């Protein structure tokens, strides 16, 4: 099927298909391994209006050259992240009845958060640009590792008991997480 825009298909171990449009107008279809081409075509077809609207929007308002992230600005973001994650960790740890050690704020391309076996928590400062429910999910996820050091059913039961709608946030990270690097 022919579309009035170019696009790239990236297959990965995911369960659903999604369309991403980067700030500079690159269309990417993310699809599960083995997803038939006919499905991708009809998926693109069903979203064609939305894609064209988006591309038109980008054409009319092209993204501004992004100024380099200054040291000062970066320090501010990291400090903001430190204060947000410190508060959220304290809040959820009390609800979940868990303890934790140090909180570190980092920037790791591939990780949003982590929890060491000693209970030290790491969070990615770029999450401050994500919806707040996503921050809550990452915090609860890492704190749940204080009870289950794995991603078992029991682990996600703990997460769900605190955040019944956690799947929405998890999906947001999967579909839009990379856009947090476009922000600055
Ligand atoms: Zn985990």
Automatic annotation (TrEMBL):
Record field: transmembrane: none
All copies of domain YgjP-like metallopeptidase, residue ranges: 15-73, 74-176
Domain of life: Bacteria
One Pfam family it belongs to: YgjP-like
PANTHER family: UNCHARACTERIZED PROTEIN YGJP, UTP PYROPHOSPHATASE
Protein name (database record): M48 family metallopeptidase
Originating species: Candidatus Mediterraneibacter stercoravium
Lineage of source species: Bacteria, Bacillati, Bacillota, Clostridia, Lachnospirales
């Amino acid at each position: 099927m022919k579309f009035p825009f170019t696009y790239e298909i990236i297959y990965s171990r995911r369960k659903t298909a999604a369309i991403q449009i980067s700030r500079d107008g690159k269309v990417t279809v993310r699809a599960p391994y083995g997803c038939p081409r006919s499905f991708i075509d009809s998926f693109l077809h069903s979203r064609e209006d939305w894609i064209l609207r988006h591309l038109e929007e980008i054409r009319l308002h092209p993204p501004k050259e992004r100024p380099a992230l200054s040291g000062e600005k970066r320090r501010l973001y990291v400090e903001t992240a430190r204060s947000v994650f410190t508060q959220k960790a304290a809040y959820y740890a009390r609800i979940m009845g868990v303890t934790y050690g140090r909180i570190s704020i980092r920037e790791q391309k591939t990780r949003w958060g982590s929890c060491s076996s000693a209970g030290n928590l790491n969070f990615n400062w770029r999450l401050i640009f994500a919806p707040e429910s996503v921050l809550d999910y990452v915090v609860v996820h890492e704190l749940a590792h204080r009870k289950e050091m794995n991603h078992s059913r029991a682990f996600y039961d703990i997460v769900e008991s605190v955040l019944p709608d956690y799947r929405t946030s998890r999906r947001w990270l999967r579909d839009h997480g990379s856009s947090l690097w476009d922000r600055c």
